[in-house]
Specification:
about 500 residues, alpha/beta, 2 domains, eight-stranded mixed sheet, six-stranded mixed sheet, about 30% helix
Length: about 500
Protein backbone atom coordinates (compact mmCIF):
# COMPACT_ATOMS: atom_id res chain seq x y z
CA UNK A 1 0.00 0.00 0.00
CA UNK A 2 1.32 3.43 -0.94
CA UNK A 3 2.42 5.71 1.89
CA UNK A 4 0.15 8.70 2.45
CA UNK A 5 2.40 11.77 2.70
CA UNK A 6 1.25 15.30 3.53
CA UNK A 7 2.88 17.93 1.32
CA UNK A 8 2.39 21.59 2.24
CA UNK A 9 4.08 24.97 2.25
CA UNK A 10 3.70 27.83 4.73
CA UNK A 11 6.37 30.51 4.31
CA UNK A 12 7.05 33.98 5.61
CA UNK A 13 10.16 35.88 6.59
CA UNK A 14 8.93 38.29 9.23
CA UNK A 15 10.56 41.66 9.81
CA UNK A 16 9.17 42.59 13.21
CA UNK A 17 10.39 46.17 12.76
CA UNK A 18 8.05 46.67 9.81
CA UNK A 19 4.88 48.65 10.36
CA UNK A 20 3.06 46.58 7.69
CA UNK A 21 1.08 43.60 9.10
CA UNK A 22 0.95 40.43 7.01
CA UNK A 23 -2.68 39.60 6.28
CA UNK A 24 -4.56 36.71 4.78
CA UNK A 25 -5.29 38.96 1.82
CA UNK A 26 -1.52 39.36 1.28
CA UNK A 27 -1.29 35.58 0.85
CA UNK A 28 -4.31 35.51 -1.44
CA UNK A 29 -2.74 38.16 -3.67
CA UNK A 30 0.61 36.41 -3.95
CA UNK A 31 0.32 32.69 -3.18
CA UNK A 32 -2.45 30.76 -1.50
CA UNK A 33 -3.16 27.51 -3.31
CA UNK A 34 -5.12 24.77 -1.58
CA UNK A 35 -5.43 21.04 -2.09
CA UNK A 36 -4.82 19.29 -5.40
CA UNK A 37 -4.48 22.65 -7.19
CA UNK A 38 -0.89 22.62 -5.89
CA UNK A 39 0.04 20.08 -8.59
CA UNK A 40 -0.69 22.10 -11.76
CA UNK A 41 0.65 25.26 -10.14
CA UNK A 42 4.04 23.83 -9.16
CA UNK A 43 4.76 20.80 -11.33
CA UNK A 44 7.98 21.38 -13.22
CA UNK A 45 9.10 24.26 -11.01
CA UNK A 46 12.51 24.37 -9.36
CA UNK A 47 11.34 25.24 -5.87
CA UNK A 48 10.58 23.01 -2.90
CA UNK A 49 7.06 22.15 -4.00
CA UNK A 50 8.32 21.08 -7.41
CA UNK A 51 10.84 18.87 -5.62
CA UNK A 52 8.23 17.29 -3.35
CA UNK A 53 5.85 16.68 -6.29
CA UNK A 54 8.57 14.82 -8.20
CA UNK A 55 9.64 12.93 -5.07
CA UNK A 56 6.08 11.68 -4.53
CA UNK A 57 6.14 10.21 -8.04
CA UNK A 58 9.60 8.69 -7.57
CA UNK A 59 8.75 7.00 -4.28
CA UNK A 60 5.21 5.99 -5.20
CA UNK A 61 3.58 8.01 -2.44
CA UNK A 62 -0.08 8.89 -2.25
CA UNK A 63 0.16 12.66 -1.71
CA UNK A 64 -2.19 14.40 0.68
CA UNK A 65 -2.14 18.01 -0.49
CA UNK A 66 -2.33 20.71 2.15
CA UNK A 67 -1.77 24.31 1.15
CA UNK A 68 0.92 26.33 -0.66
CA UNK A 69 1.18 29.70 1.06
CA UNK A 70 3.88 32.33 0.62
CA UNK A 71 4.01 36.10 0.58
CA UNK A 72 6.60 38.85 0.62
CA UNK A 73 8.38 39.61 3.93
CA UNK A 74 6.70 42.22 6.11
CA UNK A 75 5.51 42.54 9.70
CA UNK A 76 4.00 39.78 11.87
CA UNK A 77 1.15 37.70 10.51
CA UNK A 78 -2.29 38.64 11.73
CA UNK A 79 -3.99 36.07 13.90
CA UNK A 80 -6.45 35.42 11.08
CA UNK A 81 -3.73 34.67 8.52
CA UNK A 82 -1.72 32.48 10.89
CA UNK A 83 -4.65 30.40 12.11
CA UNK A 84 -6.32 30.03 8.71
CA UNK A 85 -3.26 28.60 6.97
CA UNK A 86 -2.16 26.59 10.01
CA UNK A 87 -5.57 24.98 10.23
CA UNK A 88 -5.54 24.02 6.52
CA UNK A 89 -2.30 22.11 7.18
CA UNK A 90 -3.65 20.46 10.32
CA UNK A 91 -6.79 19.40 8.46
CA UNK A 92 -4.59 17.76 5.83
CA UNK A 93 -2.51 16.07 8.56
CA UNK A 94 -5.72 14.49 9.82
CA UNK A 95 -6.20 12.98 6.38
CA UNK A 96 -7.72 15.79 4.39
CA UNK A 97 -11.26 14.58 4.92
CA UNK A 98 -10.94 11.67 2.50
CA UNK A 99 -11.88 9.09 5.14
CA UNK A 100 -8.52 7.30 4.91
CA UNK A 101 -7.24 8.47 8.29
CA UNK A 102 -4.07 10.26 9.30
CA UNK A 103 -1.02 10.51 7.09
CA UNK A 104 2.07 8.29 7.24
CA UNK A 105 4.59 11.12 6.86
CA UNK A 106 4.82 14.90 6.51
CA UNK A 107 6.92 17.04 4.11
CA UNK A 108 6.73 20.77 4.83
CA UNK A 109 8.25 23.74 3.02
CA UNK A 110 8.81 26.41 5.67
CA UNK A 111 10.95 29.51 5.98
CA UNK A 112 11.95 29.34 9.63
CA UNK A 113 11.69 33.06 10.44
CA UNK A 114 7.91 33.44 10.68
CA UNK A 115 6.37 35.48 13.50
CA UNK A 116 2.66 35.97 14.08
CA UNK A 117 0.69 38.23 16.40
CA UNK A 118 0.33 35.27 18.77
CA UNK A 119 3.45 33.15 18.09
CA UNK A 120 7.04 34.44 18.09
CA UNK A 121 8.15 30.95 17.01
CA UNK A 122 5.42 30.29 14.46
CA UNK A 123 7.12 27.35 12.70
CA UNK A 124 7.88 25.75 16.06
CA UNK A 125 4.21 26.12 16.97
CA UNK A 126 3.15 24.68 13.61
CA UNK A 127 5.46 21.67 13.88
CA UNK A 128 4.30 21.06 17.44
CA UNK A 129 0.66 21.14 16.30
CA UNK A 130 1.38 18.81 13.38
CA UNK A 131 3.20 16.42 15.71
CA UNK A 132 0.21 16.53 18.03
CA UNK A 133 -2.00 15.32 15.18
CA UNK A 134 0.21 12.63 13.60
CA UNK A 135 1.80 11.26 16.78
CA UNK A 136 5.42 10.64 17.81
CA UNK A 137 6.36 7.96 15.27
CA UNK A 138 5.37 9.60 11.98
CA UNK A 139 8.33 11.12 10.05
CA UNK A 140 8.04 14.92 9.90
CA UNK A 141 10.65 16.75 7.82
CA UNK A 142 10.79 20.44 6.93
CA UNK A 143 12.87 22.41 4.47
CA UNK A 144 13.99 25.83 5.70
CA UNK A 145 15.39 28.99 4.25
CA UNK A 146 19.08 29.52 4.90
CA UNK A 147 18.02 32.64 6.88
CA UNK A 148 15.82 30.75 9.31
CA UNK A 149 15.78 31.68 12.98
CA UNK A 150 15.62 27.99 13.85
CA UNK A 151 14.59 26.96 17.37
CA UNK A 152 14.89 24.02 19.70
CA UNK A 153 11.09 23.71 19.49
CA UNK A 154 11.30 23.17 15.73
CA UNK A 155 13.99 20.53 16.18
CA UNK A 156 12.04 18.80 18.95
CA UNK A 157 9.03 18.20 16.71
CA UNK A 158 10.79 17.55 13.38
CA UNK A 159 12.93 14.59 12.39
CA UNK A 160 15.06 16.85 10.21
CA UNK A 161 15.41 20.51 9.24
CA UNK A 162 16.88 20.73 5.75
CA UNK A 163 18.08 24.23 4.85
CA UNK A 164 19.09 25.82 1.56
CA UNK A 165 22.78 25.72 0.72
CA UNK A 166 22.83 28.60 -1.73
CA UNK A 167 22.29 32.35 -1.48
CA UNK A 168 20.75 33.38 -3.85
CA UNK A 169 18.47 30.44 -3.07
CA UNK A 170 18.58 28.31 -6.21
CA UNK A 171 18.51 24.85 -4.57
CA UNK A 172 14.99 24.64 -3.16
CA UNK A 173 14.23 21.70 -5.46
CA UNK A 174 17.36 19.80 -4.37
CA UNK A 175 16.71 20.37 -0.67
CA UNK A 176 13.14 19.07 -1.05
CA UNK A 177 14.50 15.99 -2.81
CA UNK A 178 16.99 15.46 0.03
CA UNK A 179 14.25 15.85 2.65
CA UNK A 180 11.93 13.49 0.78
CA UNK A 181 14.61 10.81 0.50
CA UNK A 182 15.07 10.90 4.27
CA UNK A 183 11.30 10.55 4.72
CA UNK A 184 11.27 7.55 2.38
CA UNK A 185 14.18 5.96 4.24
CA UNK A 186 12.26 6.40 7.50
CA UNK A 187 9.06 4.97 6.02
CA UNK A 188 10.98 1.91 4.84
CA UNK A 189 12.62 1.41 8.22
CA UNK A 190 16.10 2.17 6.95
CA UNK A 191 16.50 5.22 9.21
CA UNK A 192 15.10 6.60 12.46
CA UNK A 193 16.09 10.27 12.29
CA UNK A 194 15.88 12.79 15.08
CA UNK A 195 17.05 16.40 15.15
CA UNK A 196 19.53 18.33 17.30
CA UNK A 197 19.75 22.13 17.22
CA UNK A 198 22.56 24.24 18.69
CA UNK A 199 22.45 28.04 18.69
CA UNK A 200 25.31 30.34 19.70
CA UNK A 201 25.15 33.81 21.27
CA UNK A 202 25.31 35.46 17.86
CA UNK A 203 22.82 37.69 16.06
CA UNK A 204 24.60 37.42 12.73
CA UNK A 205 27.38 35.41 11.19
CA UNK A 206 28.80 33.52 8.21
CA UNK A 207 28.68 36.58 5.94
CA UNK A 208 24.88 36.44 6.03
CA UNK A 209 25.11 33.15 4.14
CA UNK A 210 26.49 34.48 0.84
CA UNK A 211 27.66 31.74 -1.50
CA UNK A 212 28.32 33.61 -4.74
CA UNK A 213 32.04 33.79 -4.01
CA UNK A 214 34.59 31.89 -1.91
CA UNK A 215 34.41 32.67 1.78
CA UNK A 216 33.21 31.50 5.14
CA UNK A 217 29.78 30.22 4.11
CA UNK A 218 31.18 28.04 1.36
CA UNK A 219 33.80 26.73 3.79
CA UNK A 220 31.17 25.92 6.42
CA UNK A 221 28.97 24.16 3.87
CA UNK A 222 31.91 22.02 2.71
CA UNK A 223 32.52 20.96 6.30
CA UNK A 224 28.81 20.25 6.81
CA UNK A 225 28.77 18.00 3.74
CA UNK A 226 31.84 16.17 5.05
CA UNK A 227 30.11 15.62 8.42
CA UNK A 228 27.11 14.13 6.60
CA UNK A 229 29.35 11.30 5.42
CA UNK A 230 29.93 10.19 9.00
CA UNK A 231 27.96 7.15 10.17
CA UNK A 232 24.74 8.13 11.87
CA UNK A 233 24.55 11.71 10.55
CA UNK A 234 21.80 12.32 7.99
CA UNK A 235 21.61 16.08 7.37
CA UNK A 236 23.80 18.91 8.69
CA UNK A 237 22.10 22.26 8.08
CA UNK A 238 23.50 25.75 8.64
CA UNK A 239 21.09 28.59 9.28
CA UNK A 240 22.58 32.07 9.40
CA UNK A 241 19.47 33.65 10.91
CA UNK A 242 17.36 36.69 10.12
CA UNK A 243 18.57 39.84 11.85
CA UNK A 244 15.44 41.97 11.50
CA UNK A 245 13.33 40.00 13.92
CA UNK A 246 13.03 40.92 17.57
CA UNK A 247 12.44 37.47 19.00
CA UNK A 248 14.38 35.44 21.51
CA UNK A 249 15.87 33.06 18.94
CA UNK A 250 17.05 35.39 16.17
CA UNK A 251 20.45 34.44 14.79
CA UNK A 252 22.52 31.56 13.42
CA UNK A 253 22.11 27.91 14.34
CA UNK A 254 23.20 24.42 13.35
CA UNK A 255 20.61 21.64 12.90
CA UNK A 256 21.83 18.03 12.70
CA UNK A 257 19.50 15.15 11.84
CA UNK A 258 21.04 11.99 13.23
CA UNK A 259 20.34 8.37 14.02
CA UNK A 260 19.86 6.95 17.53
CA UNK A 261 23.24 6.59 19.19
CA UNK A 262 24.86 9.30 17.09
CA UNK A 263 23.99 12.26 19.29
CA UNK A 264 27.61 12.73 20.37
CA UNK A 265 28.75 12.91 16.75
CA UNK A 266 25.93 15.35 15.99
CA UNK A 267 26.92 17.54 18.93
CA UNK A 268 30.57 17.52 17.88
CA UNK A 269 29.70 18.47 14.30
CA UNK A 270 27.53 21.37 15.46
CA UNK A 271 30.19 22.59 17.89
CA UNK A 272 32.90 22.50 15.21
CA UNK A 273 30.80 24.53 12.79
CA UNK A 274 29.89 27.09 15.44
CA UNK A 275 33.52 27.40 16.50
CA UNK A 276 34.53 28.29 12.95
CA UNK A 277 31.58 30.64 12.53
CA UNK A 278 32.61 32.40 15.74
CA UNK A 279 36.31 32.59 14.87
CA UNK A 280 35.46 34.19 11.51
CA UNK A 281 32.51 36.28 12.71
CA UNK A 282 33.83 39.58 11.36
CA UNK A 283 34.20 38.34 7.77
CA UNK A 284 31.78 40.26 5.58
CA UNK A 285 32.07 40.35 1.81
CA UNK A 286 29.50 42.99 0.91
CA UNK A 287 30.24 46.68 1.11
CA UNK A 288 27.40 49.16 0.83
CA UNK A 289 28.12 52.37 -1.10
CA UNK A 290 26.58 55.79 -0.82
CA UNK A 291 24.06 57.28 -3.22
CA UNK A 292 26.70 59.76 -4.41
CA UNK A 293 29.06 56.90 -5.26
CA UNK A 294 26.27 55.14 -7.15
CA UNK A 295 25.57 58.28 -9.23
CA UNK A 296 29.27 58.66 -10.02
CA UNK A 297 29.44 55.06 -11.23
CA UNK A 298 26.28 55.57 -13.31
CA UNK A 299 27.86 58.52 -15.13
CA UNK A 300 30.71 56.37 -16.45
CA UNK A 301 28.54 54.31 -18.82
CA UNK A 302 29.54 51.07 -20.52
CA UNK A 303 28.49 48.33 -22.91
CA UNK A 304 26.47 46.46 -20.27
CA UNK A 305 24.21 47.62 -17.45
CA UNK A 306 25.46 48.89 -14.12
CA UNK A 307 23.29 47.10 -11.53
CA UNK A 308 22.56 49.20 -8.44
CA UNK A 309 21.03 47.04 -5.71
CA UNK A 310 19.10 48.87 -3.01
CA UNK A 311 19.71 46.26 -0.35
CA UNK A 312 18.46 48.41 2.52
CA UNK A 313 15.05 48.72 0.83
CA UNK A 314 14.90 45.03 -0.05
CA UNK A 315 11.28 43.80 0.18
CA UNK A 316 12.77 40.30 0.38
CA UNK A 317 13.90 41.28 3.88
CA UNK A 318 10.80 43.24 4.83
CA UNK A 319 11.82 46.57 3.29
CA UNK A 320 8.98 48.80 2.18
CA UNK A 321 9.99 48.73 -1.50
CA UNK A 322 9.19 52.43 -1.89
CA UNK A 323 12.33 54.25 -0.71
CA UNK A 324 12.78 56.95 -3.37
CA UNK A 325 16.17 58.42 -2.52
CA UNK A 326 18.27 56.68 -5.17
CA UNK A 327 15.66 57.30 -7.86
CA UNK A 328 15.60 61.00 -6.94
CA UNK A 329 19.40 61.25 -7.14
CA UNK A 330 19.56 59.57 -10.58
CA UNK A 331 16.78 61.84 -11.85
CA UNK A 332 18.40 65.02 -10.54
CA UNK A 333 21.77 63.98 -11.97
CA UNK A 334 20.23 63.42 -15.42
CA UNK A 335 21.54 59.85 -15.69
CA UNK A 336 20.29 58.45 -19.03
CA UNK A 337 18.72 55.12 -19.95
CA UNK A 338 17.81 53.85 -16.49
CA UNK A 339 15.26 51.18 -15.51
CA UNK A 340 14.08 50.86 -11.90
CA UNK A 341 12.47 47.68 -10.68
CA UNK A 342 10.45 48.28 -8.62
CA UNK A 343 8.70 51.03 -6.67
CA UNK A 344 5.68 49.95 -4.63
CA UNK A 345 3.01 52.62 -5.03
CA UNK A 346 -0.53 51.35 -5.65
CA UNK A 347 -1.96 54.88 -5.57
CA UNK A 348 0.25 56.00 -8.44
CA UNK A 349 -0.61 52.82 -10.36
CA UNK A 350 -4.31 53.64 -10.05
CA UNK A 351 -3.55 57.16 -11.28
CA UNK A 352 -1.72 55.75 -14.32
CA UNK A 353 -4.49 53.27 -15.10
CA UNK A 354 -7.05 56.06 -15.09
CA UNK A 355 -4.93 58.25 -17.37
CA UNK A 356 -3.94 55.51 -19.84
CA UNK A 357 -0.86 54.75 -21.92
CA UNK A 358 0.68 57.86 -23.43
CA UNK A 359 -0.74 60.25 -20.84
CA UNK A 360 1.44 62.61 -18.83
CA UNK A 361 0.62 62.79 -15.14
CA UNK A 362 1.92 64.56 -12.07
CA UNK A 363 3.11 61.99 -9.54
CA UNK A 364 4.35 61.80 -5.97
CA UNK A 365 6.22 58.53 -6.36
CA UNK A 366 7.32 56.34 -3.46
CA UNK A 367 8.04 57.38 0.11
CA UNK A 368 4.49 56.76 1.32
CA UNK A 369 4.94 53.90 3.80
CA UNK A 370 7.42 55.73 6.02
CA UNK A 371 8.21 59.25 4.79
CA UNK A 372 11.00 59.50 7.39
CA UNK A 373 13.02 57.17 5.12
CA UNK A 374 12.68 59.56 2.18
CA UNK A 375 10.00 61.87 0.80
CA UNK A 376 8.14 61.07 -2.40
CA UNK A 377 9.64 62.04 -5.76
CA UNK A 378 7.56 64.84 -7.26
CA UNK A 379 7.70 64.65 -11.05
CA UNK A 380 5.88 64.71 -14.35
CA UNK A 381 5.69 61.18 -15.72
CA UNK A 382 4.66 59.61 -19.01
CA UNK A 383 2.64 56.38 -18.77
CA UNK A 384 4.61 53.98 -21.00
CA UNK A 385 3.03 50.60 -20.23
CA UNK A 386 0.20 49.05 -18.20
CA UNK A 387 -0.30 45.41 -17.24
CA UNK A 388 -1.75 43.00 -14.68
CA UNK A 389 1.80 42.33 -13.38
CA UNK A 390 1.63 38.55 -13.86
CA UNK A 391 4.59 36.56 -15.17
CA UNK A 392 6.60 33.37 -14.60
CA UNK A 393 10.19 33.49 -13.42
CA UNK A 394 12.82 32.46 -15.93
CA UNK A 395 15.25 31.61 -13.12
CA UNK A 396 17.72 30.51 -11.99
CA UNK A 397 15.93 31.24 -8.69
CA UNK A 398 12.37 29.88 -8.49
CA UNK A 399 12.34 29.06 -12.19
CA UNK A 400 8.84 28.49 -13.50
CA UNK A 401 7.09 29.95 -10.46
CA UNK A 402 4.19 32.33 -11.11
CA UNK A 403 4.68 35.90 -9.80
CA UNK A 404 1.94 38.47 -9.24
CA UNK A 405 2.99 42.13 -9.00
CA UNK A 406 -0.62 43.27 -9.09
CA UNK A 407 -1.66 46.06 -11.42
CA UNK A 408 1.58 47.53 -12.75
CA UNK A 409 2.58 50.68 -14.61
CA UNK A 410 5.82 51.69 -16.30
CA UNK A 411 6.36 55.42 -15.86
CA UNK A 412 9.01 57.48 -17.65
CA UNK A 413 10.55 60.24 -15.55
CA UNK A 414 12.82 62.81 -17.15
CA UNK A 415 14.22 61.88 -20.56
CA UNK A 416 14.87 58.17 -20.10
CA UNK A 417 14.30 56.81 -16.58
CA UNK A 418 11.65 54.08 -16.66
CA UNK A 419 10.20 52.95 -13.34
CA UNK A 420 8.21 49.74 -12.86
CA UNK A 421 5.56 50.81 -10.36
CA UNK A 422 3.64 47.98 -8.68
CA UNK A 423 0.60 47.36 -6.50
CA UNK A 424 2.36 44.61 -4.58
CA UNK A 425 5.74 44.60 -2.84
CA UNK A 426 8.16 42.20 -4.53
CA UNK A 427 11.93 41.86 -4.57
CA UNK A 428 13.59 41.92 -7.98
CA UNK A 429 15.16 38.51 -8.52
CA UNK A 430 14.27 37.79 -12.14
CA UNK A 431 14.79 39.52 -15.48
CA UNK A 432 11.07 39.10 -16.14
CA UNK A 433 10.39 41.97 -13.74
CA UNK A 434 11.59 44.12 -16.64
CA UNK A 435 10.98 41.92 -19.69
CA UNK A 436 7.31 41.34 -18.83
CA UNK A 437 6.83 45.12 -18.78
CA UNK A 438 8.37 45.76 -22.18
CA UNK A 439 11.82 46.76 -20.89
CA UNK A 440 14.96 45.05 -22.23
CA UNK A 441 17.39 45.07 -19.29
CA UNK A 442 20.36 44.38 -21.56
CA UNK A 443 19.71 47.63 -23.39
CA UNK A 444 19.94 49.82 -20.27
CA UNK A 445 22.83 51.83 -18.93
CA UNK A 446 21.68 51.40 -15.33
CA UNK A 447 19.36 48.88 -13.66
CA UNK A 448 18.11 49.62 -10.13
CA UNK A 449 16.85 46.56 -8.27
CA UNK A 450 15.26 46.27 -4.85
CA UNK A 451 17.23 43.29 -3.56
CA UNK A 452 20.30 42.59 -1.44
CA UNK A 453 21.57 39.27 -2.83
CA UNK A 454 18.94 37.21 -4.66
CA UNK A 455 19.19 39.46 -7.71
CA UNK A 456 22.71 38.19 -8.38
CA UNK A 457 21.55 34.87 -9.83
CA UNK A 458 19.85 36.55 -12.79
CA UNK A 459 21.45 40.00 -12.96
CA UNK A 460 25.14 39.49 -12.21
CA UNK A 461 25.74 37.59 -15.48
CA UNK A 462 24.52 40.58 -17.53
CA UNK A 463 26.11 43.36 -15.46
CA UNK A 464 29.25 45.36 -16.17
CA UNK A 465 29.38 46.05 -12.44
CA UNK A 466 27.24 45.37 -9.38
CA UNK A 467 27.04 47.90 -6.56
CA UNK A 468 25.13 47.57 -3.30
CA UNK A 469 23.68 50.92 -2.29
CA UNK A 470 22.55 52.13 1.12
CA UNK A 471 19.68 54.39 0.17
CA UNK A 472 18.17 54.62 3.63
CA UNK A 473 15.68 51.75 3.73
CA UNK A 474 14.44 49.61 6.62
CA UNK A 475 16.89 46.73 6.16
CA UNK A 476 20.09 48.28 7.43
CA UNK A 477 22.97 45.86 8.03
CA UNK A 478 23.87 47.79 11.19
CA UNK A 479 22.03 45.92 13.96
CA UNK A 480 22.75 48.72 16.44
CA UNK A 481 20.18 50.89 14.60
CA UNK A 482 17.38 48.68 15.96
CA UNK A 483 15.95 48.36 19.46
CA UNK A 484 15.60 44.74 20.52
CA UNK A 485 13.31 44.01 23.48
CA UNK A 486 12.93 40.21 23.25
CA UNK A 487 16.30 39.08 21.92
CA UNK A 488 18.37 36.87 24.23
CA UNK A 489 21.31 38.76 25.76
CA UNK A 490 24.25 38.97 25.83
CA UNK A 491 24.67 38.50 22.09
CA UNK A 492 27.33 39.42 19.53
CA UNK A 493 27.75 42.02 18.03
CA UNK A 494 25.48 44.04 20.33
CA UNK A 495 27.21 42.91 23.55
CA UNK A 496 30.63 41.68 24.70
CA UNK A 497 30.63 37.88 24.34
CA UNK A 498 33.52 35.66 25.35
CA UNK A 499 32.17 32.18 24.62
CA UNK A 500 29.37 31.83 22.04
CA UNK A 501 28.07 28.65 23.70
CA UNK A 502 27.80 30.07 27.21
CA UNK A 503 24.70 31.83 28.45
CA UNK A 504 21.07 31.83 27.33
CA UNK A 505 20.52 30.49 23.84
CA UNK A 506 16.76 30.13 23.61
Amino acid sequence: MASRVLIAQFMHETNTFSKLPTTLEDYRRQRLVEGAAIVPNFSGTRNELGGFIDAAKTHGWEPVWGVAANTIPSGPLTREAWEHIRDRILDAARGGGDGKGKVDAVCLSLHGAMVSETEDDAEGALLEAVRGVVGPDVPVVATLDLHANATARMARHANALVSYRTYPHVDGYERAQQAAQLVEDALQGRKSPRCLLVQPAMLKGADHGRTTQPGIMRDLLARAEAFEKQPGLNVVSIQVGFTWSDIQWAGPSIAVSHEPGAEAAATQAAAALIAEMWARRTEFSSSYRSIDEAVTAARRGGDRPLVLAEGTDNPGGGGYNDAPNLLRALLEAGIPNVAVGTIYDPGTVRQALKAGVGARIEVALGGHTDPSLGAAVQATAEVRHLSDGNFRNDGPMNAGVQVALGATAVLRLGDSIDVVVTSTRMHTIDLQVFLSQGIDPLGRNVLVVKSSQHFRAAFEPIAREVMLVDAGGLCSTDASRFTYAKLRRPIWPLDPVGDPLVGPRG
